[in-house]
Design brief:
Radius of gyration: 30 Å
Strand order of the largest sheet: 7-6-5-11-12
CATH topology of the largest domain: Rossmann fold
Helix content: 40-55%
Number of domains: 4
Number of strands: 15
Structural class: alpha/beta
Largest sheet: 5 strands, parallel
Length: 577
RNA sequence: GCCCCGGUAGCUCAGCUGGAUAGAGCAGCCGCCUCCUAAGCGGCAGGUCGGACGUUCGAAUCGUCUCCGGGGCGCCA
């Protein structure tokens, strides 16, 4: 429809250009949008106002000349000039109603496009440290990342989801030590968890399970283990880690370490899977180390002249790329930093053939973005290929009270708890209905007690209502007709619905381009509103067969689009509620 | 101190590649089930788009400054 109008305007401009009123560049400025207000028609163009300056004419005067120069078209029933110089177009009903068949024929393919042209996209998200179960903050990243993947795939990209498992850092050793202390307790030993160890109940469960499996094999002399630990909390736990490591030896320590790691990764995987979020790959940080990829990456940077040595450490010149300060990649003690691993990881993503890399990080990591982009460039990659998006935290409230969230302290609401309370659909919709960079107040009391007010039900209800109408039809022994006369659909609500249906592919494309699934959620609410209004205003199962068939076809198209949209968000479209 | 994100109706938020009277949900008030699910619909009320200046025919939208809220600035991950 837009194309038709564009063509008409373009032809009109050609005439004016020939007459010397406008220059050839005028045609580059043609912009057509859907009219905001019904009264303005269906589409509008601001071309006359844009060209006013260049032509040294009043917008309305240009509009009038253009109007006279534009050829008529069967699909356009009305053209007029309004406001400061908008040209409004009204389309023929039969042109608009064609969308009904378009939608129904496309089915679940409706709205999909090929704009991505098969570009391989790596979407990395959640990637929470496997030191505890996912909490509601991670849920937002999961819902957002997965919706984005679905959106990109709908637009012809080949998007894969990856979870980067941080299984190589100090935090994992702290988890191991926490599990070990709980193991000792399970063995009846009077051990005590360091102040900054992981305190969640799941750690006790892991310790107890470890005792069940290994018995007394992993016991160490308590007196020497806990004697004379440094006063500083961090130093203390580091000392404890190294004592347990040497005391147990590599193999036994590995048992303890893996007991925590494997159980938690599996727990996270299952949690996400139940949430409808599946990852193509789970990428281990340790595997980067084991394959020597970190040293390889460091060597590349060294040979590119991007590293220098100072105070025994190797620094990356990220300031050359606009970062605030240079960053350490190899510490004085020889160990690589997390940053070094990340450099190798991003290089590996490219080497695995991904054209575009999208990372979704929590807001607490945003200061980290410049150095990663810097390193990416320094490796000879195009920084434009790397997009780092970040989601703001969901600040949790229980009524008026803010809920503190600390994984170490074990005081947090898990994603699983949230899902059980409000259900997957409500949780997912709630998460993605806000744009990611918006701070989000997540009131648990509200989500739990008033879950029926969640907008997801409003949209799902529209879908269920259409299904219900078709069930009613069947009960009355009627069949939806094959031939429907759409010219009977002239009611305002019917035209509104057709317009909404036609808009869906544009919404999907824009949402994918903006990395903004919330735009789909907003659209669905608008479509559902239009449907509910229609439902209340007009009976569908009317006695007049032609009208009935036309209306049934229209609402079936609505059902199809709602299902498409909900699916894009990872939310189900129930046939009954 | 520097950097990033937010500041739009009582509350939670859309709108932001400039465009016509600034939108939705919730909360409030008034109506609507002999009729396809009332998890619904119709109506009323509610706004200095944080503030100032600037750019423009036109600014919630762009620029500069400023105020408020949140976050980030490790040889942590």
């Amino acid at each position: 429809m837009k194309n038709i109008i564009g063509k008409v305007i373009s032809q009109g401009l050609d005439t004016l250009i020939e007459e010397g009123l406008l220059s050839k560049e005028a045609k580059d400025s043609v912009h057509i949008e859907r009219a905001r207000d019904r009264q303005h028609g269906d589409f509008a163009s601001n071309i006359a106002m844009v060209l006013a300056k260049q032509a040294k004419m009043a917008p309305c005067a240009i509009a009038e000349k253009l109007l006279a120069a534009m050829p008529s078209h069967a699909s356009i029933t009305e053209v007029n000039i309004a406001g400061p110089g908008f040209i409004n177009f009204k389309l023929a009903t039969q042109t608009q109603s064609a969308i009904i068949d378009t939608v129904r024929q496309a089915g679940e393919e409706y709205g999909k496009s090929k704009v991505g042209a098969g570009e391989k996209v790596m979407l990395e998200f959640v990637s929470s440290n496997p030191t505890g179960p996912l909490h509601v903050g991670h849920g937002r990243g999961a819902a957002y990342g997965d919706a984005l993947r679905r959106l990109l795939n709908a637009c012809g990209y080949e998007a894969h989801a990856e979870y980067y498992v941080n299984d190589a850092g100090r935090q994992m050793h702290i988890l191991a030590i926490s599990v070990y202390v709980r193991y000792l307790e399970a063995a009846g030993q009077p051990a005590s968890l360091p102040a900054n160890g992981y305190k969640g109940a799941y750690v006790s469960d892991l310790g107890a399970a470890l005792y069940t499996n290994e018995g007394d094999d992993l016991l160490l002399e308590l007196a020497t283990l806990f004697a004379d630990l440094p006063e500083d909390e961090e130093a203390s736990i580091d000392a404890l880690i190294s004592r347990v490591q040497t005391g147990l030896g590599e193999k036994k320590y590995g048992l303890v370490f893996d007991a925590g790691l494997n159980a938690l990764v599996e727990d996270i995987r299952q949690d996400l899977s139940e949430f409808g979020v599946e990852f193509e790959t789970w990428y281990s940080e340790r595997s980067l180390v084991d394959k020597g990829m970190i040293s390889a990456a460091v060597e590349v940077l060294k040979s590119n002249g991007k590293l220098y040595e100072q105070a025994g450490a190797w620094w990356f010149k990220s300031t050359d790329y606009g970062d605030e300060k240079d960053r350490v990649v190899l510490r004085a003690n020889g160990a690589h930093t997390y940053f070094a691993a990340d450099i190798a990881y991003h290089l590996d993503k490219r080497q695995r053939g991904y054209d575009k890399l999208i990372n979704i990080w929590g807001a607490d990591h945003h200061g980290y973005i410049p150095r990663v982009k810097a390193a990416f460039s320094a490796m000879g990659e195009d920084a434009e290929r790397l997009h780092v998006l970040w989601v703001q935290f969901a600040v949790l409230y229980r009524g008026e009270e803010k809920v503190s969230m600390s994984t170490r302290g074990g005081d947090f609401v898990t994603l699983r708890q949230l899902r059980e309370e409000v259900g997957n659909d409500a949780a997912r919709y709630f998460y993605v209905m806000r744009k990611p960079e918006q701070h989000m107040d997540f009131d648990l009391e509200l989500a739990k007690s008033q879950s029926a007010d969640n907008p997801v039900y409003y949209v799902q209800y529209a879908h269920a209502r259409v299904c219900s109408v078709y069930r009613q039809l069947e009960e009355k022994g009627l069949q939806p007709g094959v031939d429907a006369d759409y010219s009977l659909l002239g009611e305002q609500q019917e035209l509104d619905l057709m317009m909404q249906l036609a808009r869906y592919p544009e919404v999907v494309e824009k949402a994918a381009r903006d990395y903004a699934p919330h735009q789909v959620a907003n659209y669905l609410r608008e479509l559902a509103t239009a449907f509910h209004a229609y439902y209340n205003a007009h009976p569908f199962i009317s006695s007049e067969e032609n009208l009935r068939n036309a209306r049934l076809a229209l609402i079936d198209a609505v059902r199809v689009v709602i299902a498409c949209g909900l699916n894009t968000l990872g939310v189900s479209a129930p046939e009954a509620m």
